[in-house]
Amino acid sequence: MPAPEDLSAALRRLEDKQQHLEELYTHQQKWVQALDESILEIRKELARLAARFTLLDSRIDTALAMREPGRDLLDEKPPHY
User: Fold this and answer.
1) pTM above the 0.90 mark?
2) Under the phi-then-psi rule, with left for phi > 0, alpha for psi from -120 to 50, and beta for the rest, what region is 74?
């Protein structure tokens, strides 16, 4: 049977490990919360950019539909010429 001092030291080590693990868990919980918030912000920004892309895409389609037939936009000279 181990000596009481050995058991006492082993118990202290286990308590220290438990406290350390609880601290790590707390830090991980904070990181998970921060990551969740970041993901939500990224999703909002992605939705905003997708809406902007859709708007710009429809404007381009409208502009292309309104151009004069037979007129090539690539050969057109800039307005300052």
Assistant:
1) no
2) alpha
As a three-state string, the secondary structure of the chain is CCCHHHHHHHHHHHHHHHHHHHHHHHHHHHHHHHHHHHHHHHHHHHHHHHHHHHHHHHHHHHHHHHCCCCCCCCCCCCCCC
Q: By mean pLDDT, which of 3-7, 32-36, 49-53, 77-81 is the weakest? A: 77-81
Percentage of the chain lying above the pLDDT 90 cut? 69
Cα separations in angstroms, 5 against 8, 9, 13, 19: 5, 6, 12, 21
In angstroms, how far is the first alpha carbon of the chain from the final one?
100
